Amino acid sequence: MKCPPFDYHAPRSQAEALALLARHGEEGKILAGGQSLVPTMAFRLARPASLIDINRIAELDTCRAEANRLRIGALARHARFERPVVPGPTGALLARAAEHIAHAPIRTRGTFCGSLAHADPASEWCCIALALGAEMRVLREGGERLVPAADWFQAVFTTALGPDELLAEASLPILGPDWRCGFAEFNRRAGDFALAMAVTALRLDVAGHVAEARIALGGVAGTPVLAREAAASLLGAPPTPDRLRAAAALAAEGFEPTEDAQVPADYRRDLVRAMTRRALEGSLAA
């Protein structure tokens, strides 16, 4: 199918893009990579009257380390992260996840921030953003605001982004060498949407005990979710195999999984248990 008719705008500055968003409101949509938006338009699931193409705004095509944060602009493509963009656990985690995102042609066009704005529950970047405590810099005509990942994801394909706002940048903490990060996901074929994924981050103290822990799950509910009880169970002790398995079991029981005719809830719970264990074990083996 072909997309329904729309007006096309190609601003060359953030100010121009924000003015267009203010003018068109609900009828305007930002186009960056277009790897999610264009298919939904082709199937008539989205019918924006205007597309605002931001690809000519050079200041949005950034990925830089600044003040212990990795700042990712709205035009940073998935493929940019296939190799570590910063040294240490953060860069390695992004590179590990990038290889699971769709296929190479999509990775060369789709964007990190576009994925966060689309908020697919099975998005690798959304799960990582929640796990690491990302922060989104949102612009609108006349102002800006910062939105933490915990407040960003609201429902399936729904975020805190307003119709007249632009997600200009997402930032992640650049984790130090005392952190151990892991990632695991399951899909039936390479490039398919994940049926379950887990992102883990552990900080070990000098005694080898877990001082901080975060576990996020994706592809299992309407939004990515934090497995808080599972993460808390690891604190204050060495991350032994038995403790990792127990934490994975808690992660599997700490939420209500989505289900459909092909993926029953109990199957998803088993996948969460397995993916969480693999992510935790993988983080410590790296």
Structure, described:
This protein has 286 residues and is of the alpha+beta class. The protein folds into 3 domains: 7-47, no CATH class; 66-173, Uridine Diphospho-n-acetylenolpyruvylglucosamine Reductase, domain 3, CATH 3.30.465.10; 179-285, CO dehydrogenase flavoprotein, C-terminal domain (Enolase-like, domain 1, 2-Layer Sandwich). The protein is 31% helix and 26% strand. It has 10 helices and 14 strands. It has helices at 14-24, 37-42, 89-98, 104-107, 112-118, 124-132, 149-152, 228-232, 241-253, 265-285, and strands at residues 7-9, 28-31, 50-53, 63-66, 69-73, 135-140, 143-148, 153-155, 158-159, 166-173, 179-186, 196-204, 210-218, 225-226. Strands 4-5-10-6-7 form a 5-stranded antiparallel β-sheet. A 4-stranded antiparallel β-sheet has the order 11-12-13-14. Helix 9 runs antiparallel to helix 10 (265-285). The termini are far apart. The model has no long low-confidence stretch (mean pLDDT 96).
